[in-house]
Each structure stands twice: as structure tokens, then as C-alpha cells.
Amino acid sequence: MDPALLQSASADADLVFVGKERGRQALTQDEINDLLVEQASQGKSVVRLKGGDPFVFGRGGEEAQVLARNSIPFEVVPGITSAIAAAAYAGIPVTQRRVATCFTVVSGSEDPAKPESSIPWDVLARTGGTLVVLMGWAALQAILEKLQQEGMAADTPVALVQWGTWKKQQTVDGTLSDVVTRAKEAGLAPPVVAIIGPVAGLRQELRWFDRQPLFGKKVLITRSRTQASRLRTLLEEQGAETLELPSIEIAPLEDNFELDATLAQYGLLPLDTPFGTISKFWAIFSSTNAVDAVFGRVDAYGNDSRVFSDSTIGAIGPATAEALAQRGIKADFIPATSVSEAVVKELSDREWSGVPVLLPGADIGRDVLARGLADLGAKVERVTAYQTITPSNAAEDARKLLSQGVDVITFTSSSTVRNLLDILEGDKSLLESSLIACIGPVTAGTAEGLGLRVDLKAAEHTVEGLVETLVNYFQ
User: Fold this and answer.
1) What is the pTM for the complete model shown?
2) Is the separation of the CB atoms in 8 and 2 below 8 Å?
3) CATH classification code of 82-209
4) Can you state the percent helix, strand and coil of the chain, rounding each to 5?
5) 94, 195 in Cβ contact below 8 A?
6) 157-162 and 192-196 as β-strands: parallel, antiparallel, unpaired?
7) What residues contact residue 428 under an 8 Å CB cut-off, 6+ apart?
8) Cis ω on the peptide bond leading into residue 191 (within 30° of 0)?
9) CATH architecture of 218-248+391-474
10) Strand partners, 105
């Protein structure tokens, strides 16, 4: 089962691994049954998460019986069995008009040569439909030989799909007589789904998943976990296998006194300020984090977006503009590019003399925008709205991921570059075998200044632009 599914679990959920594979299992089936009953009996909400469909060779029926006999209420969420999903992701319909009008799913864990097999191989060899074998890698050669002995043609198409639907999916095509040899030469190993029958011959025409531009590429995301979802989604839509290694973590301030005092001075919080209240001003948000941090304080004091009614709002980047839009604010200014020097240049034709400007941001970051507006005559207030910290266990996670081999390392800010090198204690050798892709010239400049080789720079300085650059490169 893809570990990415666990990201949907709440942060305080207990995660218990009970996986099984041939010759190795964390818990026996009886122990799993007992664990379900024990946890549910404590009044907990328990999810028994399975790959595929729980009632197709998933022991779901057995587990449901145990729950029913212990008077524990449950519900079943049907899944898509790997017998269908792996085939579809390989470009194979298990049924096709005028090709196959039926399909059969069998467990391959039983030796087909034993005297009293419970599987009617003689019948299956003559149905003319599609035969899907699950959990059959160890016995596959014997199964294919048995089908030939029972009358199935040696040149019947066969497709073997390893890690079906995963980004590391691999498919080997062949026939009843040669596919196992081909699969071993390709290095296939369990889990493997075998699709046997004429429909397997449709794969070359219908394959789609492994034709995506980034298919088979491992891309490392170094953004904070709260920011990574958009980049991860875009990369996976293009077929990439994404690995997350947050080199920074966004955290609230330990003390909001200075932030609250500044926001109150601009009339955003209902607090008395000895400096009076500034009613007309610019507020320029450089990131979605800045939006979340400021509105977190506005919300905490019972206010809402109406406190910005007399201000002019700037949003650096479309994602920041969208975050403001979700708060009911349409940004008055969105620069054509997110690079601070270019933003200053774009704003330079406006009158700034004596104009108050509020710039909420991180505890680290460049002062280019603040200095540039101050040089134009603005009265700039740069206030720390949130902090960036290094995630726990980051060093161990970084070395483990990078040692597995990564095709591309993405950097979306200067801080992600600096933090990753800090985590690695300056050891750049782990990054040398990967392409390094940066979201823009500022991030690239930081990387190069720290001794890294930058291979790709996004033309458009957004996560969308970064993904487009990767797609163009690999195509």
C-alpha cells in the first residue's frame, strides 16, 4: 500500500503496521483480529487500511466476521482490487468487446501441480477470457506451464505488472512461453499481478500511465510540509514519484507581542497603541504563510478581512493572491514576477513618498523589497509574522532518502537550500548525482553561492513554472 495514503491520517492517530508478504508478516491474522477487537472495545475509531479491495483476497471478510461476533459495529469502504487497477494502469482492459467477455481472478499462492488443486486450471485454460493471477510470482512458471498443458496456446499474450498504480510501476510483456524469463531479466520481484489473455496484447496501443513525461523520475521536494502539497500534486500529475524532505518547517512565533503591537498600529487588531492608528497603508504579502500568520492573529481577536478596507493589498505570486482571495480579499497588485528586485522596479512608477507599507514575513528572508520601497520614499515596517525551523529527525531522513538515489532535487526558496545543507552539515556529495532545479534566479543564486551546481531554473518563478521546466527538460 502506498505510504502516501497515511498523510490523510490525523496527526494524533496511532499508526500500527500489520503488513504481510510471503515468508514475512508483522502480525499473524489471529493477532490482527485480536488487535481490531481490542482497540475498538476501548471506544476508539479504528481504520483497517488495506491495498486494493478488502473483500478480494484481502481477508476483509474474516476480519468482519470477528467484529460481528464481538458485537462491534463496522462499515466497509469498497476499494478497487489490484486485479483491475494494475491492469488498467498498464493500459489493459480486463474485458473488451470481441476480445474478452469475461475475466477470472485467482490466487497464485497455491501450487498448481499438487494433486487436488482447488483451482480448475483445466477450465480456466479454455474460457477464452482474461485470467488475472494475484500473489503468484513464486509459482508463476508452474502456473503458466500448467495452463499450456491444459490447452492454452503458448503464444497467448501475458503482461506482468509490478507495483501496480505506484509511481515505480514496471510492466513486462511477453507470452505464456517466455514472459517469466523476460521478467527475471528485467529484475521483477513481488508484488506482481499477472494478466493472461488476448487483452494483454492491447497494452502497447492503450498504455498511458508509463508514458507520462516524468514517469519513473524520483523528485525530491524540500519545501515545508504545509507548502509541499501543490508541488507534489503537480509533479505526480506528470508521472513523477515524489519524495518529501522538508528542510524547513513553518511554525508560529513563540511570542506574538511585537507582531500584535505592529498589527494594532495599522488598525488590524482592536488594541490601544501609543503611536496611534495608521488607517491608509499598503500591506504586501510575500507568501501564503504570511497571509495565514497575519489572519491567524486577526481571527484570534475576533476581527475579519474588513480591517483591510482602507488599505491597498499586494500579493507576491498567484498562490499568495489565491490565499487572500479565500479570505475575501482581491489583491490590488500582483507583480509579473516574484523576484524582489523586479517587484521594486514594477512598483517604482507609483508615488511612494511618506506612504506607510506593512511587510509581514518570516524570521529570515531578504530585505530587498523593504529597502527598495524605502529608497522610493515609503515608510516601511517589516514585521516577523512566523518562524522557520529545522524539522526533527531531518538529518537522518535526509541521508536515508538521498542514499536511495534521486533524479531531481527541487528548491523553492533560498531558505530550503541553506537548511538542507545545514541538515547535511555541508556535505554536498549526496547531492552531486541529482539534477538540481530551482524556482527562480534568487534561489539559484543562493545554491550556486553555497557551492551547488544548478542545472535548471524555472522561467516562471512559481511551482507551476518549476514543474513545466522539468517536463520540458525530460521531454
Assistant:
1) 0.72
2) no
3) 3.30.950.10
4) 35, 15, 45
5) yes
6) antiparallel
7) 421, 451, 452
8) yes
9) 3-Layer(aba) Sandwich (3.40)
10) 132
Smallest CA-to-CA distance from 473 within 443, 428, 436, 432 is with 436
**Each residue of 173-203: pLDDT tens digit?**
999 999 999 999 999 999 999 999 999 999 9
For 159, list phi and psi in degrees, rounded to 5: -125, 130
Terminal Cα-to-Cα distance of the chain (whole angstroms): 30
Strand partners, 409: 220, 436
CB contact set of 344 (below 8 Å; sequence gap of 6+): 368, 369, 372, 373, 376
Q: Given the C-alpha cell 525530460, which residue does it identify?
A: 474
Q: Quick one: cell of 413?
A: 526558496
Instruction: Give the model confidence (pLDDT) of 10-60 as tens digits.
Output: 888 999 999 877 667 889 999 999 999 999 999 999 999 998 999 999 899
Instruction: Note whether 218-248+391-474 and 253-389 share their fold.
Output: yes
Q: What is the pLDDT of residues 389-411, one digit of tens each?
A: 877 778 888 888 898 889 999 99
Domains of the chain, by residue range, sit at 3-69, 82-209, 218-248+391-474, 253-389
The cell for 440 is: 527562480
Fold of 253-389: Rossmann fold (3.40.50)
What cell numbers appear for 325 in the block? 482571495
